[in-house]
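Meet our chain:
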Amino acid sequence: MNQHDRHTSASWIRRFDWVSIFLWVLLSLIGLTAIYSATLGPVSEFLPLHIQQNFSKQLNWAALSVLAVIFIQFISPRAFQQLAYVAYGLLLILITATIFIGVEVNAAKSWIEIAGVRLQPVEPMKLATILTVAAYLTSRRDISAVRVQSALIATLIILVPVIIIILQNDTGSALIFLPLIPVMLFLSGLPHGISLLMISPAIVGYLSIIDWRLGVASVVILAFVVYMLEKKIWLSVNTIIFGALMVLAVDIALHDVLQPHQQLRIEAFINPFVDPQGAGWNVIQSKTAISSGGIWGKGFLEGTQTQLRFLPEQWTDFIFCVVAEEFGLIGAGSVILIMLLLFLRLLNLSIALKDRFSQLVIVGVVTILFSHALINLGSAMGIIPVIGVPLPFMSYGGSAFLFNSIMIAICLNLYLRQKDMSHFS
């Protein structure tokens, strides 16, 4: 190796974001520890063999992810922008085909099986959607109220996979895509008021489930805030109309559309003890596990809710409860802190970049991972209805772990090789 090569290698090592890698590895190790406890601790006597194998499977996926993260650093960042549309189109075909040839797991037909290995195509679809929206918006000027066409096309790019994934009966995964719409459009120049208008139905809908009066009050507040931001009456009027329709839709759904067992799930979200042995079971057990951990926890492999198999899906959707019970407030708080630090670190990388495509990709990745964490933690704590969404880098699931790691790797690549993108742009 000559002096120039040594200098180049040293420069790459120096510029590489080791902080993000450290946080990623830390979360992964905590996740592996929790999965071990949830599947190979004393609880293993209550679990079938294929569940007991989850730890070793996750360990293999983690090793594969490390190789993927390293490999991606040698790819030109231009490739991510150039191949975005091709990857998006191919994965749309794949997730559509999954509806017909996929394997059904937990009532969702969202898996395909190749050589005995199950993969979930929605995971790479998230990445492809981020890259495609970023590539499209980069090719356009700032989006404003008078350039609605660009915003609508970007929204359509996101909504097409959402519709297909809903047809797979995988509502949780479909929901993860939706925050990309206001976040990426806002970053591309969409006015603050319009961005708030776009997310207002979700806010109103959530509060209306708790109490319709809260929904109505939120409509009034949101309409006022939208007017203060944009000084346009028509935007406030639209906020009121969309909000009122959402309040009405929630009320009709709760009383006339949903089946009795679905209505019971909603009631159990508000008060789990209306059906403690049925719809409220998951929330009651998860809250019990979290609260029983205290400050320091009961100790590794000592959580009673975990080891006596009271926690539902404790190696996937409720993995956070395992950490909270066995490592207490310190452990649970550390997980949340590490995740926030990782997200903030990635956002800091995006701010340091001048290339618009790279900024949009990194913010899109953070949006997806943050949405995963928010929904998972909210479900575990009973803040929102239980939705089957894994906790990034911690829940068992090979496809999710691999492609979440690849998303992190691409963010690191865009930062490490930012000069290549600046020349390209």
Summary: The two ends are 32 Å apart (CA to CA).
